[in-house]
Design goal:
The protein is an all-alpha fold and 222 residues long. The chain is built from 10 helices and no strands.
Length: 222
């Protein structure tokens, strides 16, 4: 009951922190899509390049988030942005690259060669085949990568509170420092609810962006 009372009493603050959290994740993942999808498409042309890019992205995602924030503090301090919003966005952007690049690469690589040949036979250029054939088929897998990136980084962003970025992590960090379980549970619960809500919202967007023909195929039992 104490936790529920705390949530009700601080509802406005929870909404403010939620907005900050969404702003960090939304901007970072949006930038990751703008960079990761083209990279994923590009590396389908060269297997060695693909191996190298995916290896580097895999290394980045294994770096503990608190360590990555710590590395960026002295680097971004050179431009007066060592703590706060910018390092949080950069960290989430970096962590988002692997699932988006990998899923894009996998989706484009696995397009049925017969469909590519059909497009070539119709006189479509490589860019036209990509836009009209390959990308529509790849959308469900690419969106699955985006969903993974968003859900994962909602949790990572909670740690950004330790570098003054705000967000729902403020409740968790203050709950720990003040030994206040009300703040700790409120923050953890809010992060979990946000992650679930974001996943369902993106699942709906994924279905909306998926070609009707592919949706029908997915519903048809094998």
């Amino acid at each position: 009951m104490e936790i529920l009372s705390y949530i009700i009493a601080n509802w406005d603050l929870i909404m403010v922190r939620t907005g900050q959290h969404i702003a960090i994740v939304g901007v970072a993942v949006g930038l990751a899509i703008l960079t990761g999808v083209p990279i994923g498409i590009l590396i389908t042309q060269n297997k060695r390049l693909a191996t190298g890019v995916l290896y580097v992205a895999s290394i980045i995602i294994t770096i503990p988030s608190i360590a990555l924030f710590g590395i960026m503090i002295p680097v971004l301090s050179l431009i007066g942005q060592g703590i706060g919003y910018l390092p949080a966005v950069i960290a989430v952007l970096l962590y988002s690259q692997l699932p988006i690049i990998r899923n894009t690469y996998t989706a484009i690589s696995n397009v049925d060669p017969a469909l590519r040949e059909a497009g070539r036979g119709m006189g479509l250029t490589r860019l036209q085949r990509l836009r009209e054939v390959e990308l529509p088929l790849a959308v469900p897998v690419i969106m699955a990568g985006v969903r993974i990136a968003v859900v994962m980084n909602i949790g990572v962003t909670a740690i950004a509170a330790y570098i003054g970025a705000g967000g729902l992590g403020d409740f968790i960090s203050r709950g720990i420092s003040q030994t206040d379980p009300r703040q700790l549970v409120t923050g953890a619960l809010a992060v979990s609810v946000l992650a679930v809500a974001a996943d369902f919202a993106l699942l709906g967007l994924q279905r909306l962006l998926t070609s009707p023909g592919l949706r029908e195929t997915a519903r048809t039992p094998a």
